[in-house]
Amino acid sequence: MLDIDITQTSTPKEKPRGDLGFGHIFTDHMFLMDYTEDPEKGGHWHDARIVPYGDFTLSPASAVFHYGQEMFEGMKAYKGSTGEVYLFRPEMNAARTNVTNERICIPPIPEADYVQAISALVTLDRDWVPDDPGTSLYIRPFIIATEPYLGVTPSKNFLFAIIMSPSGLYYKNGLEPVSIWVEDAYVRAVRGGVGFAKTGGNYAASLAAQQKAYKAGFDQVLWLDGTERTYIEEVGSMNVFFKVEGKIVTPALNGSILPGITRDSVITLCRDWGYTVEERLLSIDELIAAQQEGILEEAFGTGTAAVITAIGKLHYKGEDFSIGLGDTQGKIGPLSKKLYGALTGIQSGELEDRHSWRVAV
Ligand code: COI
Residue 102 C-alpha to ligand 1 middle, in angstroms? Predict the structure, then answer.
């Protein structure tokens, strides 16, 4: 159990109104905790505190600036219809943090402490949780290596921080289906690498292909595997699902794909509803063949920020492939719509929470 020291701001900011966008506005407070490797006490997390949101001062030699030893998470707090505030499966973010940490030599954080820190910060800034439909308080925990040393070794010091941002929909076109560029030159991750870990370098590595897609008039990139450039991995900042002849297919977690919490929740909901869900290798050729045979019914991405985002069109090797059948072609399909409603309904307390995913703050 953390002993969290709280210093409240003396100058609270005005709450935003209208369109919040994503990730531009920050609440009044942030959580901080340091890790120090001490010759006498050993390594330990200490000085858990909530302070007014503000800038950090860091040595320019801090390891994070040179070798990218850092991780982050994404989660949300939701406002219920009578003012309750909920987190969604926060223990999954805590567990995934420690999986990432292990891969990039950041010391683990006790999961109960992690969830306690988030709950304490959300409690203090609970008036910042927006309540318009489609909005939430996006929570960004992250850890950076702060040791001022230029040698390539694991840092001895770290800073764990949590900041929060009232946000609307992640994509500027709202719930409109996104168009996808299938990238067959750049790769995002390879097996044995860090693709499964939530570390900033994965996202830096995605930017050039993302720019290429934008320039070609597409919203997002669909990544193929790093070895054969054949098997579908994930889309931009989302996991990806396809509905083919009534079955749901999603790439298996093979080490180069992020183990999404929304991904896991969608698999559970689809199985609850009686769908067969296959987690397996899925090649781009198999997908294009399904589209051409008229059995590719829907495609959608899942993510904390993106929730459920329908995919309307794929572009692969110079050709466009429209997704969906009949009058839902290029539009959000019925399963994507149902999943969006179910997930956001559970998250905001409107629907029954059969799997105990919601945590009231
Ligand atoms: C999230 O969905 O929370 C993510 O971390 C994706 C992010 C890069 C916007």
Answer: 20
